[in-house]
Amino acid sequence: MSEALINVVKVFTIGFFSFLFAFFSTPALTHFLYKHKLWKKKAKETSIDGKEVKYFRKFHLKRETATPRLGGLLVWISVLFIAFFLYLFSLIFDFFWAEKLNFLSRDQTWLPLFTLVSASIIGLVDDLLQVLDFSQIKNYLQKSKISKKIEKYLGKGLSLRYRLLMVGILGLIGAWWFYFQLEQSIIYIPSFGNIELGILYIPFFVIIMMAVYSGGVIDGIDGLSGGTFASIFTAYGAIALFQGQINLAAFSFAIVGSILAFLWFNIPPARFYMGETGIIGLAASLTTVAFLTNAVIVLPIIAILLVMTSASVILQLLWKKFLKRKLFLSAPLHHHLEALGWPHYKITMRFWIIGVIAAILGITIHLLG
Description:
Layout: H1 3-35, H2 54-64, H3 73-92, H4 96-100, H5 110-131, H6 134-144, H7 160-181, E1 186-189, E2 193-196, H8 201-214, H9 224-242, H10 246-264, H11 276-292, H12 299-302, H13 304-323, H14 333-340, H15 344-368
Antiparallel strand pairs: 1-2
Helix pairs in contact: 1-3, 1-10, 3-5, 3-10, 3-11, 5-7, 5-11, 7-8, 7-11, 8-11, 9-10, 9-11, 9-15
């Protein structure tokens, strides 16, 4: 068997293992989430600009307060488990495939795995603040004399400002690792070649990570965010594979495998929502993968759905502020289409198609450029 074929087998096998682990873990996760009623106790009433979200409440009021969050646990815990299981497997058993399947490596997967887990934990805190029985927690806080500053987040979660701050800090850590540890300071532009950014590489990295996270508002319709991130990570896994970054490709396909298991149980109606513990982790790790493959310039193409949803929110805010009226019936874009009368499954399927086409286009541009 040739080395190239062995690498392909490795990447797809790890993706398959990740899918299996996530798939068979889902019943236990579902039981836990429903047993403890880990869904929002109160539906969202205002949009990012503080205005009433009439159309969102019209289509999502009942589901918002009856469907658990924290589904993202399935994604990052599966990837973390597979990574360390295969690492330990390679230490215990001394044969070719035991060593080959280990995909933990300092130059390719340490940073994206660290980013995935740490960002997901931040999201987990935000989700828990939204879904736990905050009345009981408030009583505990008062008895324990813990600062009342914490109380204002109970039932609401972390504010957007704090979430962006946390993502920005993660971005700084990632940028520091790239610039000082990996000695990276260039970006590749297809058809033009490498451009040296120097120290500007650090703020550029942070801006990209925060921009990718802003696209996380796509997590608003059953299956939409999962299908979107699956196509994006498949694209970057393919780019890494073509470039010989086998461990990074394996990491990307481990994420894809776990997302596919998530989607299996989230064909409408969703069994649980991705939540911030999934969105922040996927957004942050996607950024590191894009920079590790030096394919960050095609990220807006591959992740066109994230760009579209984030841009629709920004445009809506600008229209309201300066023109005193709405551009969309509701933002992000998928909620606008719902308000126009599109069934949620039609929106999801058409967005998936756009995402796959954009991913293929992005791969082509990067590899042929």
